[in-house]
């Protein structure tokens, strides 16, 4: 599989980031909760496995993972935290979800925001323990939500409207074939994922270069013709003197008769010019 890195500045992919956005958000929250409990003192639900890859989390006072259902034989008498994901949906951020177009290659970057609810299930055989741990997880996700997604690709935002359920029977979270007295408190965390993909056109010609040649010619002068004022060296614009009509029936220029906005009465408006032959 070939990974294409989009040219949109909002998207990027780490070298060790695999599995998709939905799987990655579970991985991020599991690592955050493990690191959170790793800073707890001994006796306060400290998470300190001798081997991080071990399923039993040997040496830890709490089990943290994403298994569904959990295995009571592995967890033992310790409380457990398992991270699950609800359905996610494409919302559409605009017409065609188009975020960026590379004019050089014709590739298009499509982007969308996917809201999803991630559930942090806190299981215990003691209801008060499950409820206290659920509040502990919720308040730290709430106050550190910006730091959780600071360096995580594909996670746009973790919402601040968390929901904590009361203790209820764990049901299928422990397994249908297991007799148990486990209870669960669920912390619902709203998350907004950012999906970005590239659509590259195939078998299309690409314009490498365009040359433009421009030629400037001499523009005609718009200055009016000038003549000397009689008896001086001063130039003034030449005045065009209208000539009298040669036809006695020609009354001279008049306004057009068409259009109600070009006349003020039913009679045509006429303009006549008289010229003094002595001064002309």
Report on this structure.
By secondary structure, the protein is of the alpha+beta class. The chain has a domain at 21-199: STM4215-like (2-Layer Sandwich), CATH 3.30.2000.30. 15% of the residues lie in helices and 23% in strands. The chain contains 4 helices and 10 strands. The strands form 2 sheets. Strands 1, 2, 3, 4, 5, 6, 7 and 8 form an 8-stranded mixed β-sheet that branches. Strands 9-10 form a two-stranded antiparallel sheet. β9 (226-228) and β10 (235-237) form a beta hairpin. The longest helix has 18 residues, at 21-38. The chain is rod-shaped and about 120 Å long. The protein starts with 20 loop residues before the first helix and ends in a 43-residue tail after the last strand.
Task: Kindly summarize this structure in a few lines.
The chain is an alpha+beta fold.
Blueprint of the fold:
Elements (H helix, E strand, L loop, with lengths): L20 H18 L24 E3 L6 H4 L4 E9 L9 E4 L6 E17 L2 H17 L1 H4 L6 E4 L4 E2 L3 E2 L13 E17 L26 E3 L6 E3 L43
Parallel strand pairs: 1-2
Antiparallel strand pairs: 2-4, 3-4, 4-8, 5-8, 6-8, 7-8, 9-10
């Amino acid at each position: 599989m070939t990974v294409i890195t989009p040219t949109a500045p909002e998207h990027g992919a780490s070298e060790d980031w695999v599995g998709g956005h939905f799987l990655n958000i579970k991985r991020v929250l599991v690592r955050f909760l493990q690191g959170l409990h790793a800073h707890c003192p001994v006796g306060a639900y400290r998470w300190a496995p001798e081997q991080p890859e071990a399923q039993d989390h040997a040496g830890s006072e709490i089990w943290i993972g994403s298994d569904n259902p959990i295995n009571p034989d592995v967890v033992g008498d310790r409380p457990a935290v398992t991270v699950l994901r609800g359905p996610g949906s494409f919302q559409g951020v605009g017409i065609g979800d188009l975020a960026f177009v590379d004019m050089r290659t014709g590739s298009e970057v499509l982007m969308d925001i996917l809201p999803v609810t991630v559930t942090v299930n806190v299981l215990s055989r003691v209801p008060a323990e499950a409820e206290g741990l659920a509040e502990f997880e919720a308040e730290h996700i709430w106050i550190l939500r910006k730091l959780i997604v600071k360096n995580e690709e594909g996670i746009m935002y973790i919402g601040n409207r968390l929901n904590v359920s009361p203790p209820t029977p764990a049901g299928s979270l422990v397994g249908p074939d297991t007799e148990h007295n486990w209870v669960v408190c669920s912390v619902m965390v709203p998350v907004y994922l950012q999906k970005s993909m590239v659509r590259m056109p195939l078998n299309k010609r690409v314009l490498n270069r365009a040359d433009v040649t421009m030629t400037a010619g001499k523009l005609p002068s718009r200055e009016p013709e000038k003549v000397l004022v009689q008896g001086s060296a001063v130039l003034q614009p030449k005045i065009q003197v209208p000539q009298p009509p040669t036809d006695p029936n020609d009354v001279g220029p008049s306004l057009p008769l068409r259009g109600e906005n070009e006349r003020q009465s039913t009679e045509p408006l006429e303009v006549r010019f008289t010229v003094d032959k002595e001064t002309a």
